[in-house]
Amino acid sequence: MKRICVFAGSSTGNDPIFTEKTRELGKTFAEKGIELVYGGAKSGLMGVVADAVLNHGGKVTGVMPTGLFEREIVHSRLTHLIEVKTMHERKAKMSELSDGFIALPGGFGTFEELFETVSWAQIGIHTKPLALYNISDYYTPLVQLVEHSIRAGFVQKENRNLIIDESEPSILLNQMLHRKV
Description:
Structural class: alpha/beta
Number of strands: 7
CATH topology: Rossmann fold
Order of helices and strands: EHEHEHEHEHEHEH
Mean pLDDT: 94
Number of domains: 1
Strand order of the largest sheet: 4-3-2-1-5-6-7
Helix content: 40-55%
CATH architecture: 3-Layer(aba) Sandwich
């Protein structure tokens, strides 16, 4: 894996563990020579992961719609910045550039990106691995919801395997590397 797209919150959340573990993931990216592809902002966990990759000598590509430049405030130290017109173009470009996806804790935007990506995998638009970086059990309720939807007959049991759920960066990346979707 050369590039991984990370979906992350534009805030850091209430618990310092989110920032600490996000830095750990960014450092692991740099150590393994994996380029970060993300939304391009300097705020929140988005900025934390970008800073961690850059601070450890890694590469970071940000993709941001022009309309968000002021609101999200573009990260100034990116290796590459790709400007697009719309959020749809942003997601398509991040997907095109990436060999896999990781969702860090975040809000509605992160959830939307996560579910669109898993939906694309479910219908065969891509075969790239997708992981939840489950810091401090942040995604455990979501995993329980997915399992509930399987029991209720709305998600096929085999599609549970589309989502890796892990809280340790090295293990998460290793699982992504060996995932066959």
